[in-house]
Specification:
5-stranded mixed barrel, 15 helices, BirA Bifunctional Protein, domain 2, 16 strands, homodimer, 2 domains, OB fold (Dihydrolipoamide Acetyltransferase, E2P), 8-stranded mixed beta sheet, alpha+beta, 482 residues, globular
């Protein structure tokens, strides 16, 4: 790329000091007909352009306003003012594109704070705000760190299918995919819908997980990971649910549960360290915003740590590893449980843990990320390895402060006979999963993996509170705009 | 990751020579009850395990066969035999998983060549073959190189939506996405399907391109790229079409057509160089396979270059940049056209170029990759910038030997009034694309981008001929298995 970004100019300005350079960007503010804050999206920081209005056509100057896009040629000098090391003395200014004055006052483009809800409806414009610029640059860094971690560790990226023929995992309600004309759906002789005539020759859905296909790839390539969209047709209008979200699912042949926990811990710490190392300016901004937000909350609900502090603490400590059985003991004996503070009181071993219990363990009891393992088999999926106690499976959940479960995974059941029994017990169709069972037939191996919801991790790292604010174009009930 | 992969052992064996190590893998072959070729997917190369059968239980030895999975502890020594630098003298062998002898002779697991068609139906097992191991390791490398290139050049990864509300671009037939019970579709008072009651409150489809959303992101973040699945509901049973495939779409604010061509050329060369640098063993294997395949063809149809040679040549030469108008001149004056050799003869300026014309230009006339630009506006999409001649648009296609178009892109129409006129002419609904038009309202800027089909590039790099063989789980008409 031959063009210099504003990030490059600001970080490497010593190389261009007292030279003329060309920069491009959008006007964030234009103060006193003299100081333009120019931003090109490469960084949260603006480049100050100094305009001596005597040197410019008055008509040109009058057209420059917030959101105008400019090409500026000028000399780089050390800044006289506070707040920036460097500024540009403009010699030539070209307005690049249309900016219609009659619409100039449209609220969204004013240099003031907008509600996150308003910006969500203007998804195409929120990219120009400081906040969403920071969020989506961090999201990029998280994504790149994920690819880098796996590549360094000899994992291969596998694209599992988006359109699938079966709801085998039962992970949630699925969207149908069809090429039928809904006004004229073909029927067979019995009067049933004739899916054999649909595009794929059968009933198809959007995937809820790439895990099962990922496992089959790991059975040949050893270490694989997926990174792709997954879907849930659940009518959940909450700050934690999206109908379309991105999942990362590594799967490793020859790994057992402990290896899997080690991998999850190394992985999360790598990604968070990467963001700390590479997104300083954006994190500083988000850290300040987070602190501001805490102030407006009642004292009891405020976070104990600042955003950056929280990220540093996650890296500093070893995650606490606790069996489900131990966790139930702790919860049963807790003041909170005894005094009836939990909405769902814990009564006995076997209970499914709620978010309130997970957060109690992480935020109050251990005060660090917690990995729970060996869950009762009844509350976990069919593909998890049955432990020798015949009561628990080799499942693991990583719990994070403020967010609860961030990773869920397990060692997989590698024994064909045990897997078949589990599938029968849990009413999973063997015939639909013939190919999955085949991987246990021909040189089955112990293997393990987990799933991470990308948006959950980005929420954690950015300190945002609504999951719709960390994905560029959120898909939720009654909303598929853009 | 604490476990050593076979790749690590083979590449770094000097560190572990005469030490005991532990390795894991699947048996590729077991010769003379003595030599096991062990593979763990990390590399195409096998590790030789030497078994002195006198030291092992005969029953254990008898269970080891092709596809068995093993854990082996043994001493690393320099190999006595040809073909490998190093081997392991086994001290302990553990069979890790079930391998059912009664099914052992299932054709697919025999150590022989299988047809690609058979393997496609056994997608879960083809990962264990040399060929598909190589293909999917290369696919990983291509993907990682793509992310690395964009990250280095300050692009941000943007996830554009998979489920969308509109077929605005008109790039192809779309799959419907619905949560309706197809046996009981709600109707409104007029008797029409009441999409307001569907999950998203409107008719939705699977995306055909993330470009328009990508443009809106670039209008704030400057440089972005997408990397995600796209869909076409076209009933094309060919070696070049998939119903579900992965696209990469960069978009850059302030770039014009020439910048865009430069970016495409730098990008392709970076990715191909990365694969040459990082996939030597797999490429050597694919190169040999490619050469074998050529031998079976009639001499006229054989490729002029070997696979690796072809990749090196793409990097060595500057791509030839030719306007559409020049290309038409060349084609009109070609012997091929005059003698009626083209299935679609070129008669005049304005003709849409077919694959045969593209390949003539690349393979016969210029003998190097070609970038065609400035196409007639009638044969290109509505969002491309109208040139001053009022006849052509600032479109560009990158054409590669053997494959034709590998990249298609353009400078975008940044002028609101021109864009609106174009949309009206081409019957694109303004109201559906209000948000797209908005980006031309508030600080519109020149910008440009392109699209690359990942599978096309992997086809080119691996020398495979059927696009179904370069994606792990192909989706095609009447096929959504796995």
């Amino acid at each position: 790329m031959k063009k210099q970004t504003i990030k490059e100019v600001l970080e490497g300005y010593k190389k261009v000091l007292h030279h003329d350079i060309t920069v491009y960007g959008w006007v964030r503010t234009f103060r006193a007909n003299r100081f333009i804050a120019l931003n090109d999206g490469s960084t949260i920081n603006n480049l100050q352009i100094v305009v001596d209005f005597e040197n410019f056509d008055q008509e040109l100057i009058s057209k420059i306003s917030t959101a105008s896009s400019l090409k500026v040629v000028g000399e780089v000098i050390e800044s006289q003012g506070a707040g920036q090391a460097v500024e540009i003395i403009a010699k030539k200014i070209i307005i690049l594109g249309d900016n219609f004055t009659e619409e100039r006052d449209k609220t969204i483009l004013q240099p003031k704070k907008h509600s996150l809800e308003v910006l969500r409806e203007q998804a195409h414009l929120r990219f120009r705000t400081n906040l969403f610029g920071a969020v989506f640059r961090v999201r990029h860094a998280v994504s790149f760190a994920i690819h880098s971690f796996f590549n360094q560790n000899q994992f291969f990226y596998i694209n599992t299918p988006i359109v699938t023929g079966a709801d085998a995992e039962g992970a949630g309600e699925m969207f149908g995919v069809t090429n039928f004309d809904l006004n004229n759906i073909p029927r067979d002789e019995q009067g049933d819908i004739d899916f054999a005539q649909d595009f794929f020759g059968k009933k198809t859905n959007l995937t809820v997980s790439g895990q099962l296909e990922g496992e089959t790839a790991a059975m040949g390539l050893g270490r694989i990971y997926t990174f792709g969209p997954t879907f849930r047709a659940e009518n959940s209008n909450t700050t934690r649910h999206l109908a379309e979200f991105w999942m990362i699912e590594p799967e490793v042949a020859f790994n057992n549960l402990e290896d899997n926990i080690d991998l999850a811990e190394d992985f999360l710490k790598y990604v968070i360290q990467y963001v700390l190392d590479n997104c300083k300016d954006d994190l500083d901004f988000l850290d300040k915003r987070f602190a501001e937000e805490q102030k407006s909350k009642p004292e009891k609900e405020r976070a104990k740590e600042g955003l950056i502090e929280k990220l540093e603490n996650v890296i500093a400590k070893r995650f606490k590893r606790v069996s489900y059985t131990e966790a139930i003991e702790i919860l049963l004996n807790s003041k909170e449980n005894k005094k009836g503070k939990f909405a769902y009181p814990i009564e006995e071993w076997g209970a499914d843990l709620q978010s309130e219990h997970e957060r109690f363990l992480v935020e109050k009891h251990f005060e660090c990320p917690v990995v729970l393992f060996d869950y009762p088999k009844e509350i976990k999926a069919f593909y998890m390895k049955l432990n020798d106690d015949n009561k628990t499976v080799a499942a693991m959940d990583v719990l994070f402060p403020g967010i609860g479960e961030i990773i869920g995974g397990s060692e997989r059941e590698a024994r064909l006979d045990v897997l078949k029994t589990k599938m029968a017990e849990m009413h999973v169709d063997e015939h639909e999963l013939w190919w999955y069972l085949d991987t246990r037939r021909f040189g089955s191996v112990p293997h393990a993996g987990f799933g991470l919801g990308l948006e959950r991790l980005v929420l954690f790292v950015t300190g945002m509170t609504n999951i719709r604010d960390v994905i560029p174009f959120p898909r939720t009930p009654k909303n598929a705009e853009f």
